[in-house]
Specification:
By secondary structure, the protein is an alpha+beta fold. 22% of the residues lie in helices and 25% in strands. It contains 2 helices and 4 strands; from the N terminus they run αβββαβ. It has a 4-stranded mixed beta sheet with strand order 1-2-3-4, covered by helices on one side. Strand 1 (34-41) and strand 2 (50-57) form a beta hairpin. Helix 1 (14-27) packs across helix 2 (77-84).
Length: 101
């Protein structure tokens, strides 16, 4: 079997790669800091069916996480800017961005 042709999960979509790069640029992150973006089903009352979680996992220091209450394919650079550049909450780890309905 040729290298690179193994069956398995597909890589991240171009849109998710773009969202990750936008987060990396907005926060001035280096390549050693992991940026993880996952789209999840939201089961809370009044929450849209899908939400997107953005996590930044540095090699050293605190991890940070933001929840955007909409599917990943509806998130814009402006949405990310509002979420990740907002003042951090008191616990300094988790912030939630509710974006326009």
């Amino acid at each position: 079997m040729p290298l690179g042709s193994r069956p398995g999960p597909a890589g991240p979509s171009p849109q998710l790669r773009e969202l990750k790069e936008t987060v990396r640029t907005l926060l001035g992150l280096d390549e050693d800091t992991a940026v993880v973006i996952r789209q999840l089903a939201c089961t809370e009352p009044g929450c849209p069916p899908l939400e997107t979680v953005v996590a930044v996992l540095p090699m050293e220091g605190e991890a940070r996480r933001w929840t955007l209450h909409r599917p990943a394919d509806q998130i814009t650079e402006d949405d990310l800017r509002v979420a990740v550049l907002a003042p951090e909450p008191p616990d300094n780890r988790v912030s939630t961005a509710r974006l326009g309905d």
